[in-house]
Design goal:
By secondary structure, this protein is an alpha/beta fold. The protein contains 14 helices and five strands. Helix 2 packs across helix 5, helix 6 runs antiparallel to helix 7 and helix 9 packs parallel to helix 13. The termini are far apart.
Length: 278
């Protein structure tokens, strides 16, 4: 059962928890972008009550509640679309149906991801990148392609970027990371974290900022996690439409905020970079 449905049913909740559940349902869009302290203040409850409610509806904490709530809201608004995220079209379908299914899936992915975004984390990550000496990007497959596109955007703003695992040199690259650098890990299901298990403590020791963009909860030591709901199967899908739409949207939002932090300087840097490209 969806988290939003559980909140609406109020089964097994105390009076205070039920009141909090009603507040969340009535203000679901705003709650998706709140911190736990903000929700406690707005609903006149305690953080402990929020945590207890989260556990009673089957999620580990408030961050997970926001992600699931955002997903539920997006599905309701899409009137429970029949497009399968893994197989949005079938053999022999007309081209118009294929196009319609892909467009619908892309729109739903954007809505789900947008609803789950924490704008404060977007701002914090953008500020860290703007102040970074270097940005190190880690990703595999389709996620690495999005990381490369993001690096291209940052380079035009004068932010030095390295696609860190492009040539299988994760241990070597890890020893180049310094305190004012930012490490960004892009991985839908977190598979790349196994490859990085030995180097994550090095990043922590050096004091650089670490960012995970993924559908999974972050491991210990990650400073920021920009998380969106998991919808795709690991294998057997037509394409990674959903996950890569979400990842690209998050990276584009970070870039937009970086640009905005020093708009005129960003504009001049981008214009100068593009002048050399022609």
């Amino acid at each position: 059962m969806a988290v939003l449905d559980k909140l609406e049913r109020e089964e097994g909740l105390t009076d205070i928890e039920a009141e909090l559940a009603r507040f969340i349902c009535a203000n679901a869009d705003e709650v998706c972008h709140m911190g736990i302290a903000d929700l406690s203040k707005a609903s006149f409850t305690s953080s402990a009550t929020v945590v207890r409610l989260c556990r009673k509806v089957g999620v580990r904490g408030f961050r997970d509640l926001r992600v699931e709530l955002a997903s539920d809201l997006a599905h309701r608004r899409a009137n429970q679309s029949e497009v399968d995220v893994n197989k949005p079209f079938a053999d022999g379908q007309p081209v118009a149906d294929v196009v319609s299914s892909v467009v619908t899936l892309t729109k739903e992915a954007v809505d789900i991801c947008h609803a789950s975004l924490d704008v404060y984390d977007i701002e914090r990550v953008a500020r860290a990148i703007r102040a970074a000496g270097h940005v190190y990007l880690f990703g595999h497959g389709d996620s690495e392609i999005n990381a490369i596109a993001f690096a291209n955007l940052l380079l035009k703003l004068g932010v030095p970027c390295v696609i860190a695992n492009q040539f299988g040199e994760v241990p070597s690259v890890s020893h180049c990371v310094r305190k004012n650098d930012v490490v960004i890990i892009v991985s839908y299901k977190g598979g790349i974290l196994k490859e990085m298990e030995m180097v994550l403590p090095i990043f922590k020791e050096r004091g650089c900022k670490t960012v995970l963009i993924s559908s999974i909860a972050p491991p210990l030591g990650i400073d920021y996690c920009l998380r969106f709901p998991a919808k795709e199967a690991g294998k057997g899908n037509v394409a990674t439409y959903y996950s890569q739409t979400c990842i690209r949207l998050i990276l584009n939002c970070i870039y937009g905020e970086i640009f905005e932090l020093d708009y005129e300087a960003s504009r001049r840097s981008k214009e100068q970079a593009e002048r050399f490209n022609h």
